[in-house]
Amino acid sequence: MEKHRKKVVLIAVIMLSAFGVFAQGNGTAGITEATQMVTSYFDPATKLIYAIGAVVGLIGGVKVYNKFSSGDPDTSKTAASWFGACIFLIVAATVLRSFFL
Length: 101
Hints:
The chain is an all-alpha fold. The protein has helices at 2-23, 28-40, 42-70, 75-100. It is elongated and about 95 Å long. The chain starts with a helix and ends with a helix. Keywords: Membrane, Signal, Transmembrane, Transmembrane helix. InterPro entries: DUF4134.
């Protein structure tokens, strides 16, 4: 039993020292890979935000048209809020992309 225990301890020490050898380094390769992975998501995310802005603009246009057609006096306020939401989405996507890339 004692011989088996020594083998287990020896194997554990060898494995831990091997992991220590592989873990050494300054980590620049991992940081570079993570940076490349994150920056690769910006183009699709920017396009997705632009598409969401287009859908919001279409929905807002329909809502404003319905209010205008019904003679609602609150049409200009609704138009401004929907237009502002679209502009915010487009500007936010552009600023975030330029800030991080």
